[in-house]
Amino acid sequence: MNVQLLNKKEAIFESTLKLINEHGFHGTPMSQIATHANVATGTIYHYFNSKDELILELFKYCREKTNEHIFNFDEDLAYKERFFYIWNRLVDYYLTHKETFWFIEQFYSSPYYELIKQKKTTYYGVDKMYLFFEEGIKSGIIRNVSFYTLISVYIGSATSHVKMVTYGFCKMQTKGREDLIEIIWNGVKNQ
């Protein structure tokens, strides 16, 4: 795909992301997305057959961008350092990309998530997290518990922390974040 086409597609994604956060899935018509992205409505239909397809592809786009950010680390880091690094990078990404965070939260609570589940996809990055936890279990560093238990503790705490900061219930303090990830680590590490 050439740069001009990629820029148009990204403009469509970014406009859709912004507008869905402001107006919701149903309050964001394709014509409004086209106007906001400064493209013709027909251009959107060149890339996406329907609004549903656009939203599913936007979810993929958001997950890929997030995973590019959080899994960008030095492979030589010890497992514990990577554990802390990935979690902190996720929190940082969501705090600086709030529209992405709220879109993903809204997506998981919508019928669109059911469409993704039917496609039996890897949820765009869940495989990386699975392999990361599997490495920790196989090497005896973390407890041998289910992936869903680990992801609930690890990602659940990150998203909860982002919400607490966003809602203003707590300030983003380095010490508080360090304490939180240390508690998570102590709960999952092999004793």
Overview of the molecule:
With 191 residues, the protein is an all-alpha fold. It has two domains: 1-48, Orthogonal Bundle (Arc Repressor Mutant, subunit A), CATH 1.10.10.60; 59-188, Orthogonal Bundle (Tetracycline Repressor, domain 2), CATH 1.10.357. The protein has ten helices and no strands. Helix 1 (3-23) packs across helix 6 (98-108) and helix 4 (51-70) packs across helix 5 (79-96). The longest helix is centred in the first third of the chain and has 21 residues, at 3-23. The protein starts with a helix and ends with a helix.
Range of helix content? over 70%
Report the order of strands and helices: HHHHHHHHHH
Overall geometry comes to elongated
What is the CATH top level name of the largest domain? Mainly Alpha
Please describe the structure with a list of short key phrases separated by commas or semicolons:
single chain, 191 residues, Arc Repressor Mutant, subunit A, Tetracycline Repressor, domain 2, 2 domains, TetR/AcrR family transcriptional regulator, DNA-binding, TetR-like_HI_0893_C
